[in-house]
Each structure stands twice: as C-alpha cells, then as structure tokens.
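User: Modeling request: complex.
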Amino acid sequence: MTYCVGIAVRDGLILISDTRTNAGLDNISTYRKMHMLAETGGYLIFCMSAGNLSVTQHVLGQLAEGLPAISPDECPRRIANMPSMFRVAQLVGEAVRAAGSELKPALRAAGVNAGISLIVGGRIGDGPIKLYLIYDAGNFIECCPETPFLQIGATAYGKPILDRAMNYHTSLDEAVKVGLLSFDSTIRSDLSVGLPLDLVVIPADRTREVIRRRIERDDPYFTDLSARWSMLLNQSRAAIPDPPFLAPRSYGSSSEASPYE
Amino acid sequence: MTYCVGIAVRDGLILISDTRTNAGLDNISTYRKMHMLAETGGYLIFCMSAGNLSVTQHVLGQLAEGLPAISPDECPRRIANMPSMFRVAQLVGEAVRAAGSELKPALRAAGVNAGISLIVGGRIGDGPIKLYLIYDAGNFIECCPETPFLQIGATAYGKPILDRAMNYHTSLDEAVKVGLLSFDSTIRSDLSVGLPLDLVVIPADRTREVIRRRIERDDPYFTDLSARWSMLLNQSRAAIPDPPFLAPRSYGSSSEASPYE
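Assistant: Request completed. Predicted assembly structure:
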C-alpha cells in the first residue's frame, strides 16, 4: 500500500508521500513515490503515485520519453512543453490510459490488481499553483479551496485529522504539521505505510525557497511530533468525563431508556 | 454504510452500532443494526450487522425461525439451544452461508453488493463473555486480549483511536468513552455513518446491570464528548511545535538535505 497527501492552501502547496511498497507481506521494499516531472524553464511539477508499481513506472517512463506527437512533423509531447497545469494533468491522464491499455489485459488475466492513482502538483512560470488527482481511467479532479487536500492510497486512517484541522487559510507551517500528523495516524494503523517520508513544499510566495526533504526513520522532528501527539491524545482522552450511563446510580434507570424492550 | 465496534475487555463487553443505511446517497434511512439474538434462560447474546440489509434480515429471520434440524426427529436449531458461544458463532455462520447460497446469485446478476459481516457477542449462563466477527463466507474469528476490539463497516476512520487507546485492561467506563470517540471520528469523516447510536454494555461483574441505550442525536453526553474532543485535538495540535524545516533560517540548507538532487 501507500499513503500520499497533497495539500493546496492559500500560502502554497505541500506534497507528502511514504516510501513503503509491498508485494505480499513478506516482500516489503522502499520505493520513492515522490517523482519530479519537470524542474527547468519555469516548470516545477511533482507527481506522487499509489497502486501497481510497474504500471506507475510505465507511466513515468512514458512521460519522460514523451507521448507520441499528434502529427508526424511534431515533437513527442512532454510535460515541459505543456502550456498550462491543466494540460499537464491531461497529458498524465493520457499516459495513465495508455499504460492501462498496454498492461491491464495481461495483469487482469494474471489476477494482479493493476490500478493506479496519481497526485500531480506544481506550477508553470508565473502561473498559479495547481493540484490534481488523476484516477486510474485517466480522468482527473482539481483540488479546491473548500477541501484543500487530496489523498491516494490508504486514505481513511489519516482523513479525520485533515477533515478537522485543514482549511484553505491554514498557514504553511501548520499545514505541514497536520499533514505529518495524518501520516502518524496512518503509519500507526496500517503496516503497509511506513517511513521514510518525502516532503515537498512550494510556497506561493516566490521569495521563499522550495523545500524538498526526506524525513528518515530517526528524524528528530517527526519522532518528537509522534511522541507528543500520542501523549496529548492520551491527556485529551483522560480529560473527557466518563459516560454517565455506566455510573452505578444510573443502573436502575437504564432499562427505562432502552429502545430494545 | 455502517460502523459497528465490539470491545471485549477484562471488565466486560461493549457493543456500539450506528443506525444509518443508504441505498445511494438519495435514499438514507435509519435502521437498527443492533439485534438481540437471545435473552432468556441465561442467554444474553447480541448481534451487530454491516452490509446488504436484505441479506442481513434474511440471516436474522432464519435464526429466529431456527435452522433446519440435522435429523427429522429433532427441533430446528436455534441460538437459545446452543450449548456454547462457539456453537452460537457456528450457527450464525451457517445462517450467513445459507442466505448467501439462496440470495447471492440473483443479487450478483443484478450487480448488487451482497456481502455482509456480523459481530456476535454475549454470554450463556455462567460461561465467559465471548465476541466474534462472522465474515461473509460464514467463517469467523474470536476477539482476543491482544487486540480487544472487532470492527465492521467503515472501520478505518475510527481505528487509530482504538489502536492507540484500547487494551484489555482498559476500564469499562474508559472503553465506552474510547468507543464513542471512535464513532465521533467516523461520523465526522464518513457521511454514511450517523447518529443515533445503539450501545450495549455487559459487565463481567454480574452484580452490575447490563446497559442497553440508544444515544440520540441530541444526547447531552455525546454532544459534549464530541465538542470537547474537537477542542482538545485543536489545542493538542497547536501545542506541537511547527516543523523546523520551513523556518526561514533553514531555507539555505534545505537543498543540501534533499534526496532529489
């Protein structure tokens, strides 16, 4: 499995991915799921991937080679030739469909799950930062301010904290912290998601530097965050009063409140 | 969808289920998923259900009627004739298989998801409290002290808090509270799970009364628990330091730490 989150808030873009892949529980490896699609000529575009590793690599390889030109006298179509982030998402979607057409019949015949999903985010020149989720059929959605995050892979364990804490006006620092808390919950509940994590932060303010960082197993900040969060959750839980319906004094009246009798 | 949790700690058994069912997002109803299987003659056995509602009701109806006798001169086999909780789980599993054999071919032909899963818990006479998860194929597992809870339905959103906070020695009060927090997270992240909740508590100490309670939408304790938890999570999050790698002073060194260059 995999867990990747893309967060698009007012102050910028955050991408976080784990690095664990498994083909069965006895075959666990570390693979990068954070991929640079373009970083020259004003392009700064990343892609995170979940699902079948060979299909994903096929898509990335095809994008690096370039997709076939529309007419014979043109060049192959590459990310770094696309005039907009929307066209980038379209090209990635096309590559996903092409890989599916080529690989899926044999994979399905072999009983292998061939599905993938991708999160693509970045910017071109002076254009706005954009974030897309590309589905297995090559269709895609764009992240919007009302729900400023997109997830792929094992999405559910880390969704409650994002639902509670993330909005479009969350600061970049805070959004990175919440994103990492979402990973902490997921790593705790899902063996198939694991450290190290890859983090990319593209601030909307172009005077601030782009961050690319691998958060290793022994990363002091993540270790501290995980320990503090665990302790604070325990304290919070302890601070909530016990249910009144189990108190000895309420036993006599419990059956009156029962809908079962 | 549905969310049900069964918790078997040293001090007793807790069952909690939601009541929302949906056939499409435009057809949402309230159905009880907490069912009494037996409550006379020393039997106290409940069942919670997730999945196809018609298949579930078929199973419950068949259990109420009794499953066909093994030999012609015997009575139909009912929950309240079973000599042990293990035999109860076997009988429920058999009813699940029988309903599947009868209903699934037509349901599958119609493209309807026919799967169900059940949590069965309770006690017989002076015997120990037992808790089982019955799968769609009628096979089942028993809850064990190492992981003292079983979930069915939309299990992932509410699993992190159970993973963190629940162990076999958690008190009954605390376990009910943690169970309700698990529902609070699930209800917040999954529209298909909703109040009211049904709660059953069977204390291991037989001098304590069995609790059966419906937690309605306006239940003061659950409303307070939800509001406090939200506030405490926000405070906890705020109490965790911001990531150091975004601080302006670290910008200069970020690219040195990057695995991508």
